[in-house]
Amino acid sequence: MAISRETSVGDLASERIGRIEVFESFGIDYCCGGDRALAEACRAVGREPEIVIEALLQSDRDAAKSADSDPADWRAATLTALTDHIEATHHAFMKRELPRVGDLMDKVLAAHGENHPELAEVAGVYAALRAEITDHLEKEEQVLFPMIQEMEITREAGGSHCGSVQNPIRVMEHEHDSAGEALRRLRALTSDYTPPADGCATYQALLAGLAAMERDLHEHIHKENNILHPRATQLEASLLGAARQES
Predict the structure, then answer these.
(1) Helix (H) or strand (E) holding 166
(2) Does some domain include residue 3?
(3) Could you give the number of structural domains in the chain?
(4) What is the pLDDT of residues 35-80, one digit of tens each?
(5) 50 lies in a domain?
(6) How far is it, in rounded angstroms, from Cα 104 to Cα 207?
(7) Are residues 23 and 121 in the same domain?
(8) Which domain holds residue 150?
(9) Cβ distance 33 to 41 under 8 Å?
(10) In whole angstroms, what is the distance from residue 116 CA to residue 98 CA?
(11) Do residue 46 and residue 126 come from a single domain?
């Protein structure tokens, strides 16, 4: 796929996972906003498309020279492999980090809340995000992922109590949008996760943890919104179409 101003950022990130580093560095939304053309996504953050395109091309050149330049192509892998990967990688990360960052948040709020009143809002936004992500992961693991896996294995669609796979997908993507907004709010409240002059080691660890969580969630949402969900929807449509022809 050629890199052009008209190509969607989601497609660009899906083709080569290394490009995510470039989008993150320019603050370009490639997950929830993955359907936007590169030029539009650049305008949204005040970046020149030509500069971003050159950075993407350089990323591709660097990847071609690297021994680790052949990561899994999730557009071609089975949907079962992709859901297993998301659960083992991104779900596991969140289950580990959510309580750890929560503990850091409590300590920092207690120690620095008086001098940094914005921390109260940071803690509130984080608490809501943590609860939403915890519930979200459970719904993916108990509802959406098994539904997709069963459809792929049995080659049958439409038998789930949820009806179409598009029903839980719509719920998941709405929650992705909500999580994305919470991340934007956390970044704004913390001045792009920049420790204040009086920030102790725990304060710095908190902000580093929030930044790492943002990055992982961006990749998580990208793999679902731009790869898993469209492929699952397409598979369901194909299976239903084949069933109608046979009946």
Answers:
(1) helix 166-189
(2) no
(3) 2
(4) 999 999 999 999 999 999 999 999 888 877 764 544 678 999 999 9
(5) yes
(6) 9
(7) no
(8) 79-246
(9) yes
(10) 22
(11) no
